[in-house]
Amino acid sequence: MSYLVIRNVSVLIVPESGDCRVDEGQDIHIEDDQITAITATGVTPSAAAQADDGAAAPEAASEVIDGTGLIAVPGLVNSHTHSPMVMMRGAAEDLSIDDWFNQRIWPMEVNLTPERVRVGARLACAEMLLAGVTTFVDHYFHADQIAEAALESGIRADLAPTFFSSTGPEAIEAAIATARDLPTLGPRITSSLGPHATYTVSDEDLRRTADIARAEGFRIHLHAAETEDQTQSSLDRLGVTPMQVLERTGVLDAGALIAHGCGIRDPDLPILERYADRTTVASCPKVYLKLAMGTVTPIKGLQSIGLQVGIGTDGAAVHNTLDVWESLRMVALTQKQREQDAEWMNVSDTLRLATRGGAAAAGLADQVGALEPGRQADLALVDLSGPHCQPVHDARAALVYSVRSSDVVTVLVAGQVVVRDRQLTTMNLDEVLADAKDLAHTLVDLSKGGAVQHYAP
Amino acid sequence: MSYLVIRNVSVLIVPESGDCRVDEGQDIHIEDDQITAITATGVTPSAAAQADDGAAAPEAASEVIDGTGLIAVPGLVNSHTHSPMVMMRGAAEDLSIDDWFNQRIWPMEVNLTPERVRVGARLACAEMLLAGVTTFVDHYFHADQIAEAALESGIRADLAPTFFSSTGPEAIEAAIATARDLPTLGPRITSSLGPHATYTVSDEDLRRTADIARAEGFRIHLHAAETEDQTQSSLDRLGVTPMQVLERTGVLDAGALIAHGCGIRDPDLPILERYADRTTVASCPKVYLKLAMGTVTPIKGLQSIGLQVGIGTDGAAVHNTLDVWESLRMVALTQKQREQDAEWMNVSDTLRLATRGGAAAAGLADQVGALEPGRQADLALVDLSGPHCQPVHDARAALVYSVRSSDVVTVLVAGQVVVRDRQLTTMNLDEVLADAKDLAHTLVDLSKGGAVQHYAP
Fold it and tell me: Does the keyword Hydrolase apply (chains A, B) (predicted)?
């Protein structure tokens, strides 16, 4: 058993509802992969905690990390991304959503190989861990390679192997087989089924996916109602909204993580409400503004029917970073704008979405997303001493509106120190960057022609 | 004469129109406060440059800064801020615009003293310089104290001493006298006249301000048409828009920097067009979203009539940072959203607003805002080697959508190295932070009652 103590740290407490608070002068006690107690500095874990799991006295700690002057926050969750797309960062700028897909991204993705995906995923894991992201929820090709990168880096991941209907039943079968294999590759890896979207996967394939998901206990992670235009197009073509497609194919019944959902309309809410216990939505607003999608995820409506909402970056080919601090700030700002209410999406609610909401999106609602005894020790120690954060009248506001990823000092995932003093402990960053630079040109090469798919939702 | 060379650096060239480009492998030659030549690395400045100003050979450089692996960008301009409000960072969160002004900010400002303003301004200058902001355009009280902080830090500043009509003619006279004195305090300080807004300064006082501005060569920096509501209220109360107020009082004729202008309507454009050569607008979109103002600056319309637009942070009591990288990213994103056009406000145009646009807003259009021989040597060396920027398919996109202020390595203002290896050379940051922390509580104390003004535009 390893026993680690983070000594004399401020702790961000994110309750299930209501205001977050910051407890100063705390010790976080971590045994193996779990938080076992949070006590006032220097106080032995409570008798209750000792009775539960035999927590040792602080003196017995095999490692003590000095948290003085730092704030411990639950590790952030990137609730929706395509991590290897970091390899295309900056290669598709200032384009309409149609051109972004059809002139750049889907033609580029004919260049995907297992090696290139792995190199991209390693870079993505490095970027996320250094920024305090301890879990990511991914949707991409060659997901086994992404799992290997996640395992090497020490990050936690839920991975959905992507498939389209257009590539035929064998490719779908292979993606589902990969989803079955992923959790066997090592710890901290879970998987979901990954049909691409309601507009690229047929109802028949969605139905079969839902059947497998229900039978084998998978959740389904997919794109749906990404834009209002997609919803209107679905109504025009099929007479139903994307949410109705998800219901009639059994996807909602199986349990779904819906990426974006900006085109979810008020009449969809009663449908979603029936599956509120197993439906989450990931919001990635930087992308909605950058692609001029016209609207953002209707979080207020979704929360009103009991859905959990997480925050994601989407892929870096459009978001340019995998920075969840940036994303959560964008959520706060764009939700206030959407609702025309500056009091809405306050700092506590924003932090809750990025942590507890993300945990739900990852299918890990009881395991991560809060700093509490019994949960996994996934956390980041953040330094608010920089001139862009000082003076600190409200640490929660500093975390939402001032902090930068470069303020993350130390990161733990499942009790393992994966970032120490702003350096990765698990990977050689120079090597990760050099590999990515070497291969970057191969991903954006459009000389071969073709595309993995055509965007015409 | 001092002669400094930045050796082997990539240079961001921001033309007056069209695409920005990055020239690799360049030497930037700096004599005293000016750029005298930009040459291929190792090449002696051109005969032309030598003939112009007697540039010495590189061997004679008194200092050589190695720019290998870095990109030199024109120092960013914060086109509208209230720098000492960093002291209130995080003290007025999740509030409507009315409550933000009337319950927090204007009651807090009864606590302003010269010392508190100076301590805040020192912190603000530190934050901005470390983030590559080399010029700021300020609007606040006790502007002489802000000038002293700017002088100490080495930053460039245009300062407008704020006044309301409600505080009487003597206070106005004092503010104008301060504006007259500021440039005498030292180099790199210019001043503007600072009536607060069209809704807090009477037409009569605006008219008198415009007369003085025209007579003495000042520009006028003020808030106008901050929101659509203000424009509607002006029409309801006065029968004219805020832009019409600015015209009829002579403010536009004198030359104005208009903060925000989100409520500028299409019929205002022909009015503004008559003064396009001397009118600039500063856009601070993080604030418009955070206060749920309902709209953002109509930059497309303003540019269509030839106005220059700069990017600002506004005060940190609402923007939380003075980070112009963050602001320029928000401009790109919110302008795409506003125009429902992902091709609009492309990376080159965004970078131009933050540099040349800001220079115009500061009244320094010919002196800063671009890396060109003959201009002031105000620049930042930025490191794009971090995992959040790599691989770099397009450095311009990295600067707009990936970079963080912490990627700024070295900063020069007027040829002086003010940040070296991410450390201020001009001030002791620990001392600056300690002073700010000591006094922060005095600024947010509401026990005295009263307010400097009431928001009822």
Answer: yes
Burial (Cβ within 10 Å: 0-12, 13-18, ≥19) of residue A398 = buried
Write the burial class of residue B449 (CB in 10 Å: 0-12 exposed, 13-18 middle, 19+ buried). Answer: exposed
List, for residues A117-176, the tens digit of each pLDDT value.
999 999 999 999 999 999 999 999 999 999 999 999 999 999 999 999 999 999 999 999
Domains of chain B (ranges; CATH) run: 3-73+378-424 (2.30.40.10), 76-361 (3.20.20.140)
Determine if the peptide bond prior to A391 is cis (ω within 30°). Answer: yes
- pLDDT by residue (tens digit) across A369-403? 999 999 999 999 999 999 999 999 999 999 999 99
Secondary structure (H, E, C), A404-439: CHHHEEEEEECCEEEEECCEECCCCHHHHHHHHHHH
Q: How far apart are CA A319 and CA A313, in angstroms?
A: 6
Instruction: Kindly list the residues from chain A whose CB atom is less than 8 angstroms away from the CB atom of residue B346.
Output: 93-94
Give the pairing type, strands A379-383 and A70-74. antiparallel
Q: Residue B98's CB: how many other CB atoms inside 10 A?
A: 14
Q: Under an 8 A CB cutoff, do A337 and B130 touch? A: no
Alpha helices in B131-241 (DSSP H): 143-153, 168-181, 203-216, 228-238
Distance (Å, whole) CA A333 – CA A347? 10
Q: How many Å lie between the alpha carbon of B104 and the closest alpha carbon of chain A?
A: 13
Distance CA A441, CA A439 (A): 6
pTM of the shown model: 0.97
Residue A366 has pLDDT above 90, yes or no: yes
Nearest to A342 among B97, B336, B398 (CB): B97
B292, A100: Cβ pair inside 8 Å?
A: no
- Verify whether the Cβ–Cβ distance B290 to A342 is below 8 Å: yes
Question: Distance (Å) from the C-alpha of residue A328 to the closest C-alpha of chain B?
Answer: 13
Count of beta carbons in the 10 Å neighbourhood of residue A447: 6
Q: CB–CB of A90 and B405 under 8 A?
A: no
- pLDDT value at position B57? 52
Residue whose token pair is 């930053």: B155
**B123, B323, B346 ranked by CB distance to A390: nearest:** B123
Which of A94, A322, A391 lies nearest to residue B440, judging by beta carbons? A391
Write the pLDDT tens digit of every residue in B192-239: 999 999 999 999 999 999 999 999 999 999 999 999 999 999 999 999
Q: Measure B246 CA to nearest chain A CA, in Å.
A: 28
Range 266-285 of B in CB contact (< 8 A) with A: none
Kindly determine whether residue B347 and residue A94, on different chains, have CB atoms separated by under 8 Å. yes
Whole-angstrom distance, CA of residue A400 vs CA of residue B320: 9
Strands A3-13 and A63-66: parallel
B390 and A89 within 8 Å at the Cβ level: the answer is yes
Residue B455 pLDDT greater than 80, yes or no: yes
Which residues in chain A (365-424) have CB-CB distances under 8 A to chain B? Answer: 385, 387-398, 401-402, 404-406
Optimal mutation site among A89, A394, A418, interface B, most CBs of chain B within 10 A = A89
User: How far is B395 from chain A, CA to nearest CA, in Å?
Assistant: 8
Q: What is the pLDDT of residue B48?
A: 42
Asked if B321 and A401 count as a contact pair (C-beta separation under 8 A), the reply is: yes
Q: Using alpha carbons only, give the angle B259, B265, B267 rounded to the nearest 5 degrees.
A: 125
- Residue B426, Cβ neighbours under 10 Å: how many? 17
* pLDDT band at residue B82 under the 50/70/90 scheme: very high
A51 pLDDT above the threshold of 50: no
Q: Say how many Å lie between the first and final Cα of chain A, rounded.
A: 53
Q: What is the nearest CA distance from A150 to chain B, expressed in angstroms?
A: 16
Q: What is the pLDDT of residue A424?
A: 98
